[in-house]
Here is the input.
Amino acid sequence: MPGTSPVLELRDVARRFPGRTAGAPPFTAVRNLSFNVGEGEFVSVVGPSGCGKSTLLNLVAGLDQPSEGTVALHGVEVAGPSSRVGFMLQKDLLLPWRTVLHNVEFGLEARNMPAAERRERALAELKRCRLTEFADRYPYQISGGQRQRAALARTLAISPDVVLLDEPFSALDAQTKLVLQKNFAETIAGSNLTTLLITHDLSEAVAMSDRILVMSDGPGRIVEEIDVGLPDRDNPIARVGRPRASEIVKHLFHALHLGEREDA
Ligand SMILES: Nc1ncnc2c1ncn2[C@@H]1O[C@H](COP(=O)(O)OP(=O)(O)O)[C@@H](O)[C@H]1O
Ligand SMILES: [Mg+2]
Here is the structure.
């Protein structure tokens, strides 16, 4: 959002990994990454498989450190995972031996929150994510879509001010994906969360975000930035029906040279 100070700021970030064989030069996964995300803004990063999207997310999450440049949250350089940042990956990472409710309570236990307060917070989050009736089930007893909702509930229960999502819908069938995108969009719109979504799904990026950053083939860098400029951020289904949405998708498709790729 223009005019607000950035919540997240990347300056000339690069990440190199050691060469894959002895004596091989280091491998550059991402380079020259510079961008800001403002408070309450929803930004998506799209790019071909292997271009460094997850690498970028791990750097922002503080799970990994850049080889060059800086990543800052609220003006402070990221040195490790922060309790103000929630993240969610394609794989839900729910603990199989805990019920949905106890999974949502998990992050709160680590903060020594009193049991009664923890329970209350977890139940409120389950309600918001429409999972109340599944609270006592184990992850294997619910669907993939419900598991992702439970993972979102767990992520939001810690009251983060930033959420990082790495392809959270990509393992779901097309129909479940639409329902979840709508569910996530409504949940996120009802808060003032700053969101960074990594996806290779171009329509998803257009349906859900305020701004889209386009990453090139590896080593990934940002080659384009698009202001989505569509209303209804809380209603992705309404958004994708608009002519501007399909124009942006078409533009992204060409920008990423997807029509020319054999492996897309
Ligand atoms: N920890 C690591 N060590 C070595 N190479 C890595 C590591 N993590 C990612 N890479 C490599 O960096 C590149 C980008 O990976 P990734 O960020 O997972 O891409 P994406 O999420 O866009 O598909 C890939 O070539 C991958 O093999
Ligand atoms: Mg990835």
About this structure: The CA atoms of residues 44 and 197 lie 5 Å apart. The helical segments are 53-61, 100-109, 115-128, 144-157, 174-189, 202-208, 236-240, 243-255. The mean pLDDT is 90. The pocket of magnesium ion (ligand 2) is lined by residues 53-54 (CB under 6 Å).
